[in-house]
Structure formats: structure tokens, C-alpha cells
Write a structure and sequence with these properties.
153 residues; mainly alpha; two-stranded antiparallel ribbon; 65% helix
């Protein structure tokens, strides 16, 4: 579930844009440039001096906030999800003896369908399981992921 920098910036695009504009807003009027038909920029004047000792404080502060949010919120959520996944997997292994790949598939299908295995997925992937086994396995998923799934129907 790795995210790219581009993905991360979509969580707070205004803050991301502001951090970039803190640098470029003051620089753009000093540049002589043109854009071709493919929007590629060509700079016509000497600009190296403006990049030599630039103040990147706003960008560093924004990067710190993005990293801090990732660690505090997204990483914590991901770790909680993985802990629940391991708990569910162990519970299912106590019910039936199946390869990990099939257990993973069962959990994924249940999470995609409000904690229940659809009749179609059961027929195509788990027709060898009894109704009791399916019910107990669904309960294991629902028990672990209770607040993350809706079991209303």
C-alpha cells in the first residue's frame, strides 16, 4: 500500500501548492521563458543565481507536516489494519485448514462485501466449505474488523 509523493500531495493539495508557490511565485516574474505547443518551458535568461542559495524553509516545513501526518495517521491505520488481518487469519486457521492464499482471498472478499462472502464468490472459490465453516469464518472477519465494515446487509 505504498504511496508516492504525488499520491500524498492529493490529501492536502492547497497546502502542497502553497509550499511550491512560496518559491516559484517570486521567481517566475524574473524569468524570461516561452512554452511550446506541448507546454514545455524554455528559459531564455540566466537563472542559476536564483537557485544557488534559495530558502526552502516553506517546502521543508510542508514536507515535515506531510511526513508527520503519514506517521501519526496513515501508518498507524495501516498497522492496525495489518494487526486485524493477522488476527483474522489466525482465527480462520483455527476453523479450517486452507492455504494462506485462499485465506487471504476469503478475507479480501469479505472486506469488499460488508463482512460476508457473496454467493457468487463462494461458488467460484469456496464451494468445498460447509455453511457452518463459512459462517464462522465470516464472524472472524466481522469480529476483527467490526468498526471498519458494515454488517447491516
Amino acid at each position: 500500500m505504498a504511496e508516492t509523493n504525488q499520491d500524498k500531495s492529493t490529501h492536502r493539495p492547497a497546502e502542497y501548492d502553497a509550499s511550491l508557490e512560496a518559491f516559484s511565485l517570486h521567481l517566475m516574474p524574473l524569468m524570461e521563458y516561452s512554452l511550446d505547443e506541448e507546454s514545455c518551458m524554455t528559459v531564455h535568461n540566466e537563472t542559476a543565481i536564483w537557485y544557488r542559495y534559495m530558502d526552502m524553509t516553506p517546502q521543508a516545513e510542508a514536507l515535515f507536516r506531510f511526513i508527520h501526518e503519514t506517521i501519526d495517521t496513515e501508518l498507524a491505520s495501516e498497522l492496525a489494519f495489518l494487526a486485524k488481518y493477522d488476527e483474522t487469519k489466525r482465527a480462520i486457521q483455527e476453523i479450517v485448514d486452507m492455504p494462506d492464499r485462499q485465506i487471504d482471498l476469503f478475507i479480501r472478499f469479505c472486506l469488499q462485501n460488508n463482512g460476508r462472502l457473496s454467493a457468487r464468490k463462494r461458488a467460484s472459490h469456496f464451494d468445498f466449505l460447509t455453511n457452518e465453516e463459512i459462517g464462522r469464518m465470516e464472524k472472524a472477519v466481522q469480529s476483527a474488523y467490526g468498526n471498519m465494515i458494515s454488517t447491516d446487509g
